[in-house]
Amino acid sequence: MTLSVSTSQAVDLRVQPVDEVLDRVARSLQVRFLPGTVVRKRRSVGARTDRETWVRVERRLLDKITDQGWNGAERAARLDGVAQPAWRGCLVWRDTNEQVMWRADETDLLPAAPVGNAILSEAPELSDEWWDGLNASLDALAAHQTRRVATPDTETITQTSVTDAIRAVFSGDFDTTVQRWVPAHADLNWANVTAPVFSLFDWEDWGNAPRGLDSASLWGSSLAVPSLADRVWQERWRDFESRDGKLMTLFVCSKILGPYAHPEDPRLEPAQRTAEQVIDELQAQ
Asked: For residue 85, what is the DSSP state?
């Protein structure tokens, strides 16, 4: 069973029919999806089941599946000290008509609702306990060891990709060599964390990345709300003050300020201002 579309690259699961895919998953996992609970994103679809679990179904091009496999949620299940929904099982199959694979992961339900969209326009109400949970989970994650390599936006992060992204937008006499690589979620934004109870979900892209990637990513998704961006910086200051954290700040700013920047994006000015300050600090080292 496949989606009927013209090309693999053109698929957007927010608009394409997914009934056949969900029917296949439901039969294989022996669940029933509850009406009105389906959440559709560009390359994934999720829904609540009749056994009080959540199933996330993702479609991925074959050339976006690296040698390390496509089992991020499964491998993340062994991460001690990281608040996340418990993983229960999965279903994987290759599409017979297109160069893509499908994967469905079943997990426990989230303990609370997602905080919001990937990029927020107003500050959420987050308790000190919530920030403690964020810090504990990110610190525990970074203390683990893995052979996985992070794939933010499904692209494997490497020294070359970091250097290329930064140099494409910023100039200056500073070294872009990463010194420390640690496990990272690699897709940390406000759509992938819950509140008032903290948990972190959508682990498809996690793996080793330069220290500070997660902190910088969450900060970048907060820039439209200065007080929130400041709180992220305050809570994760050890990452931001590190040399690698400064590079990851530039890496995130390059995504905001790069060739696909929207002229009305409220994050442009604070990203540019911060980038200039970080470059001055790197050049002074």
From this structure: P
Quick one: residue 153, left, alpha or beta (phi over 0 = left, psi -120 to 50 = alpha)?
A: left
**d(Cα 166, Cα 174) in Å, to the nearest integer?**
11
What CATH fold (topology level) applies to the domain 19-108?
Answer: Phosphorylase Kinase; domain 1 (3.30.200)
**Closest by alpha carbon to 78, among 161, 140, 165, 11?**
140
Residue located via tokens 């009749």: 50
Residues of the chain with pLDDT under 50: 1-8
Give pTM, 2 decimals.
0.91
pLDDT tens-digit series, residues 93-111: 999 989 999 999 999 999 9
Per-domain residue ranges of the chain? 19-108, 113-284
Phi-psi region of 82 (alpha: psi -120 to 50; beta: other; left: phi over 0): beta
Q: Comparing 19-108 with 113-284, is the CATH topology the same?
A: no
Name the token pair of 113.
Answer: 């609702």
Which residue from 222, 208, 220, 231 is spatially nearest to 278, judged by alpha carbons?
A: 220
CATH architecture observed for domain 113-284: Alpha-Beta Complex (3.90)
